[in-house]
Fold this sequence. Notes:
3 helices, alpha/beta
Amino acid sequence: MSQLQYYAYADHGLRLRERSSYHQAVRVGDRIECSGQAFPSCLLSLLLTVQHLVNSSLGGWDSTSGKMKEDLFEEIDQAFENVDRNIKDAGGKGWSQVFRVNSYHVDMSDEALGHMIKNLRKWMPDHQPLLTCVGVTKLGLDGMRIEIEVSAYVGT
């Protein structure tokens, strides 16, 4: 695996690499695969047939300090910011390249899902991706209430 290029963005990404033994992203041929930011579901493999993809799964913690946001809406906002940062760190442009969003929620209330939609509109004003929202009882870290996984087409 030494021929693969691995990435761990500054601050919390590097701390997670040391503490939990995983990277934020890896370039595999013409694709970039991105893992989550603190939960053990890192490096989920997706079988994709399109070229130049970014797969990213992220939670709503501060990407510098690693601290979880106490307010649910702030955690959702931060998760969207973390997705953008992770895609860009792996060589992509950000949310404008996202075509699929899978989100995992401890809180499936109308308010929480409404805030998700608000962020989808903010981060992708020019297109609407495929979307799947799944309710779960627990995520990888205590106190974590949202996880967002995306696929983005990087192109040539």
